Automatic annotation (TrEMBL):
GO CC entries: cytosol; glutaminase complex
Keyword NADP appears in the UniProt entry: no
Organism expressing this protein natively: Malassezia brasiliensis
Domain of life: Eukaryota
Enzyme class: hydrolase
Keyword terms of this UniProt record: Glutamine amidotransferase, Hydrolase, Lyase
InterPro entries: Class_I_gatase-like, PdxT/SNO, PdxT/SNO_CS
E.C. code: 3.5.1.2
The protein, known as: glutaminase
A GO BP entry: pyridoxal phosphate biosynthetic process
GO molecular function: glutaminase activity; lyase activity
Annotated family: Belongs to the glutaminase PdxT/SNO family.
Reactions mediated catalytically: L-glutamine + H2O = L-glutamate + NH4(+)
Length: 272
């Protein structure tokens, strides 16, 4: 039976963060004419992950999520899931977990899953009191804007053209007493052939004038921009690399389900 008829199962990591809201957004797709039918489940154990066609890593606190994965014995199963090319969508803290390199973390760093050729800065848009809402530009939606909720959101600092040497350089920094806030994914997460990272959406610079956006066209070692081409001074806040997707904001905290629908139709269904 085709997946479009039997439906799909989307797991939402439920160790910490806004997992219930994601489950509710996927469930709301079934109240419309959306196909296939979506079954969203909470994932807290490896055997629950095995039931899923796709997985969401929700927003929350990335260090707490990393510790929760370790305690639930989910870190290595998730790394294997990503290495096998299965669909994953990371939102906010989930983007940090999927990044190759994360800066601005706590002393000693944190474990990353890796998978995305991306360097992000934790809390790059500011602390909790600096949280804000702003419209995100999504060319794949016909340039229709998407309501972005940014809560201690990560900033995309680099699109990594060749993530292996840049990861190695970042890993060397972690041994320096002055650079303990750098975290890197395992080297094995970058050894498999990967499609280029693509830009899906961005935030105009005018939305957060207090934060300077990187110029991806001139950043040393950054990737050529694939997918949509943002203005030079825009903040990239949504990316895709093969079957991995990440957004630095919280789509689950709005009533807009277009990104949830996109994840199911454009990333999960083609993988089945």
């Amino acid at each position: 039976m085709p997946a479009s008829e039997k439906g799909v199962t989307v797991g939402v990591l439920a160790l910490q963060g806004a997992f219930q809201e994601h489950i509710a957004r996927f469930a709301s797709l079934n109240a419309s004419s959306f196909t296939p039918r979506v079954r969203a489940i909470a994932v807290r154990r490896p055997e629950q992950l095995e039931q899923c066609d796709g997985l969401v890593l929700p927003g929350g606190e990335s260090t707490a999520i990393s510790l929760g994965l370790h305690n639930a014995q989910l870190t290595e199963p998730l790394r294997a899931w990503i290495a096998e090319g299965k669909p994953v969508w990371g939102t906010c803290a989930g983007m940090i977990m999927l990044a190759a390199i994360a800066t601005g973390g706590k002393r000693g760093g944190q474990e990353l899953l890796g998978g995305l050729d991306l360097q992000v800065g934790r809390n790059g848009f500011g602390s909790q009191v600096c949280s804000f809402e702003a419209d995100v530009v999504f060319p794949m939606m016909g340039n229709q804007e998407y309501p972005g909720v940014f809560i201690r959101a990560p900033v995309v600092e680099k699109l990594l053209g060749d993530a292996v040497p840049q990861r190695e350089a970042a890993a060397a920094l972690t041994t320096s007493p002055n650079s303990l806030s750098v975290s890197v994914c395992p080297a094995s997460a970058l050894t498999l052939p990967r499609p280029p990272i693509e830009v899906l959406g961005w935030l105009p610079a005018s939305a957060v004038p207090s934060v300077v956006a990187p110029d991806f066209t001139h950043t040393a070692g950054s990737a050529a921009i694939h997918g949509a081409h943002p203005p030079r001074d825009a903040h990239v806040v949504a990316v895709r690399q093969g079957r991995l997707m990440a957004t630095s904001f919280h789509p689950e905290l709005t009533g807009d389900t277009r990104l949830h629908a996109y994840f199911v139709r454009e990333i999960i269904l083609p993988s089945l």
